[in-house]
């Protein structure tokens, strides 16, 4: 507030009309809080401002310029018309991290005063013309959800002009009147329109209705306030934040993994690390920095990462003579040393793995766990004497990735090989496990195991004497063998997939095998008439139950906080997704039983205290199996075989994956993506960047038999002889 006061005083704008009040997290609670205390200052509290921040669509390599819209709280505006008026594209509500990065604000305290001389060059401000010329006083957040400053509309305009921000003063009512009904775009020559698709932008009124319909009636702010199927991006953000999985960091695209989510990653680490050690893989660590010369040695490989590479160019105030990159992946970091260490076929196989983080400076809209600028992963890099040996390992690792999803996370996946277009840059072939998010109908690449062939060993000269070479070639170049290499990686994306697949309108639903707390025990039936001695008996029973379960290897916790009601605790742990809740009250003690409540289906059942540990262990396995079966049945029902192009986009728009007999021609793959692109239909649970995305090949499933014989079938897109059944879909 001190900095704001100084800036306003310099403009001769009085700042004595400041109200301190209770923290507000909605327009309604703000008005209520201000009204309660502002009357003592002797002025009206009927006029309020609203500030909405948008992120316009930009090129992948461009830094976004947020648009800050400031208006009277009762002003109506058409987002599309405003965007067109100021020369911007597809303005969408900015994510919380955008507000934090550019304005150092949240949705609860952002205002015109969040714009300063320091951040103004990075922003565009749009000011309501009716506000800009008004001499009435309006409530404005003063850099806090607990302080409000009253300024005239003209003073707000004067302040914004003083910051140097690009300021657009817009008459919203005039724009709204001029806004024409969206005109359908003509289909491009040679393309087919998606049946039932909307070719123009969704009217702002429809979006507002959809957003309103997505809200959960009577939901408290501490709980999840939107439906998963109604507003998926908002739901996902709320579930991660309120479920205590992560927090935002002050660098856009980077997130803090809190213990609740990091435990999931540790569980994956423990399983996978143990399994790869069984096949002779050893852990190591290479530096995160890589020189430009090394990074650029494999051009096909690095071209796939070039737009995302982050460079260190300074040390203190001095420019580095040679910038160094932060690894986007470690092939080019590690392989010069493989060439040094592998001198003989007796040095093979060399199998190394790293647990580290990598940086890929994507300029797309970041999404926690799915699209982040830094993420945790493991990357294995191995060298072999033969292709057969390399092939065997590729499939073994892919099988382990499948187990991570199905045996730990209860998430079904489809195993297959990537098309030539979608394979790892510079690789020989790529295998993958593909997941599916039913709410959006989009696929998600879960983990990849690549055979690199001899491409990298030729580039980095990783050779050995071929033990099968004829005698006359020994010691000569003809007797040299370039080793066969693999690389494989799995990241914290796994956590995002798990949340999206299993979460519901009440919050997280944690798979038991990766839940930090598997059983939460809550004392119940304690009222005002309960004596201290009776309360102590119940509390002690909860504590003892937790200790007994822990002794049996079950991750249990007794919630003995006495400043929260049982109902609050139920909702709190339900939102965090704990698989089983045990309730213990006076009647349960009499019956020598506890009441169990499952998080996945809300089923309740009494369990005897005798043999409780065994009962809970079995119930946890049952919950895992039921969660997997439910998700698997959903995924299978959304994989549709299609042999006619007329059905392709219709199936895709029904939020399904499409399995077609495919020719495997790259130009055909490009055309499929182009023809199947469409804008989102009204009311859909859309996600950032999803609406305009066409279908791409997700994988060529290994299990071809389930789809029947492909022989004699034609590709539905181009009519060429089909080679294999291939799964297409929109994806993250």
UniProtKB/TrEMBL annotation:
InterPro entries: aa-tRNA-synt_IIb, aa-tRNA-synth_II, aa-tRNA-synth_II/BPL/LPL, Anticodon-bd, Anticodon-bd_dom_sf, Pro-tRNA-ligase_IIa, Pro-tRNA-ligase_IIa_arc-type, Pro-tRNA_ligase_II_C. It comes from the Eukaryota. GO terms for molecular function: aminoacyl-tRNA deacylase activity; ATP binding; proline-tRNA ligase activity. Its EC number is 6.1.1.15. GO terms for biological process: prolyl-tRNA aminoacylation. Pfam families: HGTP_anticodon, ProRS-C_1, tRNA-synt_2b, tRNA_edit. Residues 264-511 form the Aminoacyl-transfer RNA synthetases class-II family profile domain. Keywords: Aminoacyl-tRNA synthetase, ATP-binding, Ligase, Nucleotide-binding, Protein biosynthesis. Coiled coil: none annotated. It catalyses: tRNA(Pro) + L-proline + ATP = L-prolyl-tRNA(Pro) + AMP + diphosphate. GO terms for cellular component: aminoacyl-tRNA synthetase multienzyme complex; cytoplasm. Belongs to the class-II aminoacyl-tRNA synthetase family. NCBIfam families: proS_fam_I. This is proline--tRNA ligase.
